[in-house]
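Dear colleagues,

As part of the handover before I leave the project, I'm documenting each prediction I ran so the next person doesn't have to rerun anything. This entry is a single chain, and its sequence is reproduced below.
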Amino acid sequence: MYDLPSDLPRLRTLEQQLSIWIRHVRTAIAAAEQREQERQQGEERRPPTPDWIVELGIGQGAPPSEVHAGHCHAAGKRRREISREQALALLADGVRACAHCRPDTDLGVL
C-alpha cells in the first residue's frame, strides 16, 4: 500500500521525523487557535459604532469641520461621537456634510 522502507533503522528514523512534524503542526494549530480566540475577544469587546460623528479641525478649540455617519470610512482621526440632535445643529450651523456617507440625507436635512 505505501512505499515504506522494510528495515527497522529507517522505519525508526521515519517515525522520529514524523513525530517532529506532528509537534510542529500541533504548535501551529495552537497558535492559530490562540489568534482566533483573540480575534473573537476583540470583536466582543469592540465598542459599538456611534450613529453620528463630527470630524474636528486643527488648532486650539478644534472647530468642527465635517459631520459623518458613524460607519463612515472617510472620517479622519480627529473626531468625536455626537448625538442626532448635535449633528442636526452642526449641519444647520453650516458645518459641511461628508460627501461619502451623506449624513444630511440620513438626517432628513437635504
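The radius of gyration is 29 Å. The chain has a mean pLDDT of 92.

All the best with the project,
I.
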